[in-house]
Amino acid sequence: MLKQSTLAAGLLCALFTSLASPSMAQDASSQRFNEALSPPWQNGANDDATDRGFDFTVPDADNLADFHGDPVNPKLALYVGGNYFFAMAPLVQAFEKLHPEFKGRIYWETIPPGLLMKQLKAGGTVTVGNMTWTVKPDVYLAGLKKVQQFVADGTLDAPAVPYVTNTLTIMVAKGNPEHITKLADLAKPNIKLAMPNPEFEGISRQITDALTKAGGPSLATMVYETKRKDGSTVLTHIHHRQTPLWIMQGRAEAGVTWQSEAIFQEQAGHPISHVDIPASENSTAIYGGAVVKDAAHKEAGREWLQFVRSPEGLAIFERYGFKAYAGGGKK
Q1: Cβ density class 180-196: b for 16+ within 10 Å, e for less
Q2: Which residues pair with residue 324 across a beta bridge?
Q3: pTM over 0.90
Q4: What CATH topology corresponds to 40-55+62-164+287-324?
Q5: pLDDT in tens, 8-44
Q6: Which CATH architecture has domain 165-276?
């Protein structure tokens, strides 16, 4: 009798579920984990270690996508603002061809610049999940104004070296199903946004400027405050990873990123596209770097800064839509 009543209850529950949400099975299927869309997106190319030992990477459960190379006794350690994580593998490979003594001995991180500075101030120690390790940087690379600020306060050594520029775009799903055509469309209540966190992602300042140009302070307030309060704007911690991932997962429908990031996603074959922002509303970032005060490998750091503004380095950046900073390629 108990078995029969339990079976009947199960059948009624299944019937109710199917009536209440006939597309539930399809929705569940569409949300299944797709390893090909999950970071890291470069098939191991962003690991400079020559001896990788046992390979244990399990997207999405065990994955350190923004930490690269062997942290034990590197000859060059780079703290790189994550906006061009995808360019680092070819940059490192080209640098090592010019300087073979660094082969397999470069370590780099690509989390947001504000978080990199927090790590630098913590003596180079970082914790991710259950793992804690320490790598002090030789070079810090971020927006030029921030680099100049940290040179001025003595955290970094002069000079601050500019090398490339970048502009903003609206990242959307392939095919642009929400028909977003301009920044003002982001204010629509039905558009779910993934936006960089102003607390530590420098891009948020440029985005706020662009939104203000496009629709005045009210547009910036709508996107970053009103929609955040109602839940239709969610802030990222690592926009260059989370924005495209959330769009591909259906958790967001758009987000403002650097143009280079959308270009990389499209080149990788992911279901991502972008909407151009006119120059009159756009904002341009200048990337710069400097050697860290008391760095262990100052000469190596200076060689890296010389390389990123060389013709070889700039050619790699240009693959993703970056432009050489005026005069940056002459040395």
Answers
A1: beebbbbbeeebbbbbb
A2: 164
A3: no
A4: D-Maltodextrin-Binding Protein; domain 2 (3.40.190)
A5: 334 333 333 333 333 323 333 344 446 667 776 666 6
A6: 3-Layer(aba) Sandwich (3.40)
